[in-house]
């Protein structure tokens, strides 16, 4: 049972990161392999500015890290266990409620 405030804060931070579809797509892409921002922007079909904002959020949440690579910067998951956690979470949610859609929290106050 979670009783430590820091445990709750960590889970809430992870939840906020997953609350945005673009950040979910980024985490799924980085689960596959580290990548450069320009490649991620192209793969996701979003502007580099928009991508940068989402990567900054994921960095601030502690989910991704930057790795200098010459004159470029590569992004990767902060810990390989995050990839496993994402896989496990996705499998659990699909197993429990594959046919559900989550109403936006602003609309209904859930999720």
TrEMBL record:
Residues 3-100 form the HTH arsR-type domain. Metal-responsive transcriptional repressor for the cmt operon. Binding of cadmium or lead causes the repressor to dissociate from the DNA. Keywords: Cadmium, DNA-binding, Metal-binding, Transcription, Transcription regulation. Pfam families: HTH_5 (PF01022). GO terms for biological process: response to cadmium ion; response to lead ion. InterPro entries: ArsR-like_HTH, HTH_ArsR_DNA-bd_dom, HTH_Metal-responsive_Reg, WH-like_DNA-bd_sf, WH_DNA-bd_sf. GO terms for molecular function: cadmium ion sensor activity; DNA binding; DNA-binding transcription factor activity; lead ion binding. CDD domains: HTH_ARSR. This is HTH-type transcriptional regulator CmtR. Homodimer. SUPFAM superfamilies: Winged helix' DNA-binding domain. It comes from the Bacteria. NCBIfam families: HTH_metalloreg.
